[in-house]
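Hi all, long-time lurker, first post. I run a small reading group and we've been trying to get comfortable going from sequence to structure in the token notation. Rather than ask abstract questions, I figured I'd post a concrete chain and ask someone more experienced to write out its structure so we can walk through it together at our next meeting. Sequence below, copied exactly:
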Amino acid sequence: MTTFEDRVKGVLISAALGDALGAPVEKLSREEIEQKYGYVTTLKTRWYKEASGEEVTLGKRRGNGIITDDTLMILALCRVYKKEKRHLDAYDLANEFTKEIAFRKTFIPEFDRETFILDRLFYPEKHIFLRHVLANCEPREGGMGNMVNCGAAMYIAPIGIVNAGNPLAAYNEAIAFASGHQVSYGLEAAGVLAACVACAFSPDAAVEDVVETAIALAKDGTKQAIIALTKKAGELKKIHSSYKEVVAILHECIAPFSPMGDDVHRKIEKVGIPSNHYTPSRLFSIEELPLALAFIVYNDGGYYKSILDGINSGRDTDSIGVMVGAILGAMYGTKFIEEEDVHLLSKTNRLDFDAEAASFAEAAKEILERDLQIARKQEGIIGH
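-- Answer (accepted) --
Happy to help. Here is the structure in token form:
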């Protein structure tokens, strides 16, 4: 039986693995990935920007196992839990989490130096600093504006861990915490992914259980997108469709919920052009979570194949890889992870996964045990 500690380690390593596999091809379409790489299968992949001679800003580097902000923020959230040793809400995002990303230096592998995570973050994640430090907003009203993306969902997995086996509690805590960061369907995806991770920690959890949990808790466009993509993935699995066909059909399925398509780059020609891209909506969904669940369904929960299909499908490849990895890492622990990959991830990113997982698992178990004690007391009260 896989131990709780091994599952925690599985989540952290698997999220980093999906992140690092997807990072060198992020923002390419599936067709561009196929043209440049065929089908990416290794961490030892050269970043397409370096390979093509494109300008690389701020001395950034990727490839060879380098993680991005997705994993850095997962680890930052773990550190908040290790400090607080309790459940979190938007006030904790505004306080300790903001300190972790904006005021405490850590090693940023893409820059090959120690600096603040904030220096690496994309605009929607910098929004946390703007709202909670510069604007000094009420923390629960921090998630404002039209910067809807997968920002909160990409780092929310630790909330699933501290609510292991209780998806509803994970969903509620993720919504409470990430409301300081996002609104609309970006926030909804964070709640659902945390619930998926919590469900995957349950003994004998299967892919069907995770999908059923996601559908049961998801709201609005997020719910409909997950239903549409996981149903279609199940159908495609039965008829043994080719990978190229699978991606094309899944992208057709997500299109009504996410209108951007392959045009994910921000460029001067798009400035001032009316668009629904990233606009808060009851009808839309982020792409990454429904796609991650669909690839897990299509591959019957196969560990590497689900991650690799996700990161080769194009667009936000690193975050799709993170979400697939977090769910399957929670389900399987470390048993399917190749030691060569763990070694490269550890060396390249200066990470001690054993220490990171052990310390966070200890904090998570303390929180879970306290929850169990409270539940037992409540049962006693009800019984009397």
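A couple of things your group might point at:
The two ends are 36 Å apart (CA to CA).
The first strand starts at residue 105 and ends at 108.
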